[in-house]
Amino acid sequence: MEEKIKAEFLKSGFTLEDEEEILKKCRAFCLNYSLEPSDLVSSWEVYYLNRQLDESVVKDADMYGFLGHLQDEQVEAVVKREPGLHMYSFKDVDMILNDEGEDSNEVVLGTPSDKSEILHLDEYNSAQKTNGNICSSGRISKLVTPFGKRSNKFVVKLKIDNLPTTETMNGMHHHENLEDDIIKRIQPNKSYSLVVHRSWLEPGCRFIYDRIEDRFNALENRIRNHAAALVASGLYEEPVDPSVASQKSIFAVGMICCDGEGHLNDKSILLQSSVEHSGGQRVRLELNKLSHFSVFPGQVVGIKGHNPSGHCLIASELVDSVPLSFAADTNLRPAKKQALDEEIQATKFPSSPTEITLIIAAGPFTTTENLLFEPLKELLTYATRKCTQLLILLGPFIDSEHPQIKKGTVDLSFDEVFRLEVLRMVQDYLGYMGSNAQPAFDLDPLDIKHQITSLTNPGIFEADEVKIGCCTVDILKHLSGEELSRHSVDGTPSDRLSRLASHILSQRSFYPLYPPAEGVPLDFSLAPEALNISSVPDLLILPSDIKYFVKVVSLGGTSEGEEQMKKCVCINPGRLAKGEGGGTFVELKYQGSPDKMNASIIGI
Question: Where do the DNA polymerase alpha/delta/epsilon subunit B domain residues begin and end (predicted)?
C-alpha cells in the first residue's frame, strides 16, 4: 500500500520530504479510516490548499494537522448520515465543565439587536467609528475587540507590478496608518461608465425549482455546444459514438463522469457522450497513455483514441477547452446601462488604453466575535484614502453561520442587518467621497438612490470597457476536491491555482462541476444562460477559502501558424474577515492588458 500512496502523491505533483515516516503514517491513516490511496491524496490536496502551504512538498511536520483534517472529514460524513447526532467539540466540553451555555445571562454589546439608535456622522471619520460600539442608550462604549487591538494594518502580502516605475500607484505598498494623509478626490473631468451584462430574473423565478428535464437539457447542450465549436475550428472531425468498437482512431466529445460514489481515480473515469452521437451512452475512459491531464466530473472534453473492445476508450489526446473567440458580445443585450450622465455614456475611447483602479473584497465582512463589521469600516477607510474608481464587494454580506446568528441573539432579519450595517457604511463612504467616486448606480430592491448597484451571481459587467466576471460560489475549492491530474514526467512543477482557475475559462462556465457540491443552489432551468461565459473576460474574480492569489492565465495557442492567445487576470481576494481577525483584499490598477497592471494583495 505504501508504494501506491507514494505513486498517488507523485502523480499529483507532490514530493515527500521524510518519505519513510510519511508513508508509514499515511498507511495508518488509510487503514484507520478505510481510505484508498487516491482518496487520501485528494484529502491532502484539500488540506494543502486550505492551509495555504507554499511548497508542493509533503512534510512530516504537517502530518499531525493532516490527521485532524481527516478526522473532521470523518465527523462530517457521520453527521450527514445521521443529521440528528450532535458531535461535541472541545469548546462544548469547556462550556459544560464551566456551567456555561445558552441559558447563561450573556450581554453582547454592539449587535444590531442592541442598537436603538444609529449614529450618522456628517464627515467620514474612521477613527471615531472603528473602535466605537453603539449601545442601546446611544452612547459610545469603549469596547476594544481583538480586531481593533491588532498592530499590523494594511500589510502587502503579495505584489505584482507590470507598470513602468513612474506609473505605479503612489504609496500602494506603504502602511496606511499615517494620520496626515491628504484626501485627493477624483477630478470632475475623469468620468467612468459601467455596463451590466447579466439580465435580472423574472418575478416568480424560484432557485429551488430543478426538474430532471432541465438538468438533462443543460448537460446535453453543453456537450453539443463544445462539439460544435471543436468541429467549427476545423481542427477536429465530426465526433462519433465512443462506445462502438473500432480499431481506428476516432474523435469523441463527452462529459467526464465518475463510476460510482467518491472521487475520480484512474479506474473510475467515464465519458458520457451526447444523445445525438451515442444515445447518451457512457464508456470507460483510459488516460494512461497521456503524459499530463487534468479532469473533473462535469468537464466536457474532446478525446482522440480508439476502442478495440467496445468497453474502454483508450485516449491518445485530450482536448479540454474550446477554441477562443475574440468577437465582442454583440448578442448580449445589457439589462441596464448606468453612467454618470448621458454625455459620458456616448463618449468613445478609441485612442487611449483603458485604465481603471479597483479595490476588490469578499465576505464575510465582520469577525466571528461580533457584528460590528470592523473589517468593512477599515476597508472603506482605505478606499477613502486611495480614491479608487471602482469598489467591488462580494458576499456573503451576512453569514448565516455567524456564531451570534446561530445562537439567536440577533432580533433583526438578514435584510435589516444588511441595511443598518453594510449599506449604511457604504452610503457614508459615498457621501464623503462625492459624486465623482464611482458611476451613478441604483439599488432598486432597497430603494437606495446612491452610487451602488447590485449584480446577479454570477455576474458580468464592463467598467470603462474592462470586462469583469465574478462568482461568489467557491468553485475553486469545490474543484480542488474533485480534480484528478497528472503532471509532465519532466518534473516541471504545476501551478495548481492557475490550473483550477483556467478550468472556469476553458469550460466557458462559472460552475462546470457536475454533480454540484452539496449545498450549492444550482437551478438547471436557469443554468445555461446564467453560468455561460461567452467570451474570456479581462478580469475574473473568484473568491475562495483557499489561498489568495492574482494569476495571469493564458488560454489558446497556435492554430495553422496563426497565434490565438487570450490572457485573463484571475483574482481570489481571500476573505476580508477570518475568525476573530482580519483577512485580505486586492487593490488593482489595470491599463488595458495583463502586461500593464499593478496588483497587491493586502492584509487588513
Answer: 359-430, 449-551
